[in-house]
Design goal:
Length: 163
């Protein structure tokens, strides 16, 4: 787990008070702690958090193209090709021609990919429970709702200028 650098810590190992109240600092270190817990939990299944997100995006009723998966995850096409290549080399996904459009490849989970996704998702959920352990259920719900509102704000409503 990544800890604050010595210049960010007090002599007791706690963050300096001037940093401990800064939102960016808190979000960064919370994300690093969650990433470490998740990476450790998913390591036995041979996938990273990012690869697991790709498996989740692919796991749908209709086959998706690489571009559709990239769009769902907000990832550029070059990065998506590399991620799919990695997952294909692990035999977790397979590419095949789209029967409706032979110019397009679709990606689908293999049986091993589906099993890996189930196990990795379960391990990731357990890591998240450990991460959120200091919070009550209500606090966990409030935190997730607040982060969702910040990360994905609702479109601003036009201001009405009625007199």
């Amino acid at each position: 787990m990544q800890t604050p650098s010595p210049s960010e810590q007090s002599s007791e190992g706690e963050p300096l008070p001037a940093l401990a109240s800064r939102l960016g600092y808190l979000l960064k270190h919370a994300q690093l702690r969650l990433a470490d817990l998740t990476a450790s939990a998913m390591a036995p299944f041979g996938v990273t958090g990012r690869q697991c997100a790709v498996l989740i995006a692919i796991d749908s009723q209709a086959p998706l193209s690489q571009q559709e998966v990239a769009r769902r995850l907000g990832v550029d096409r070059t990065t998506m090709v590399l991620l799919i290549d990695e997952l294909e080399s692990k035999r977790l996904v397979q590419r095949r021609r789209d029967p409706g459009d032979r110019r397009k490849n679709v990606v689908a989970l293999t049986d091993a990919g589906r099993t890996t996704l189930q196990k990795a998702s379960s391990a990731s959920a357990e890591a998240e429970r450990r991460f959120l352990g200091p919070l009550s259920d209500d606090e966990t719900t409030q935190l997730k709702e607040a982060l969702r509102a910040i990360a994905f704000p609702a479109p601003a409503k036009p201001v009405s200028h009625k007199h």
